[in-house]
Specification:
single chain, 85 residues, mainly alpha, Non-ribosomal Peptide Synthetase Peptidyl Carrier Protein, Chain A, ACP-like_sf, PP-bd_ACP, Acyl carrier protein
Length: 85
């Protein structure tokens, strides 16, 4: 499975902090923690997706536009790793 380096994972967490409207810092969440259980809404996840596309200069294909793609830091990192490979 593709993975991002720790610097890129930190960028993912920064985007989550800016656009995810989570009640806790993304840095405080385990990378496998369910983001929706931790306050991410479907509306905020769209903003996170757009911000990630800008941050990493990628475009999420329709096949990745699922709740599970944005369900955890690990899931986001795996999706981005595929897109940036």
């Amino acid at each position: 499975m593709e993975t991002l380096n720790s610097e890129d994972v930190a960028r993912v967490r920064d985007v989550l902090d800016k656009f995810g409207k989570l009640p806790v810092s993304a840095a405080d969440l385990d990378s496998s923690a369910d983001l929706y259980d931790n306050g991410l809404t479907s509306h905020a996840s769209v903003n996170v997706m757009i911000a990630l596309e800008d941050e990493f200069d990628v475009e999420f294909p329709d096949t990745m536009l699922q709740k599970s793609t944005f369900g955890s830091v690990d899931a986001i990192a795996a999706a981005l790793a595929q897109l940036t490979d």
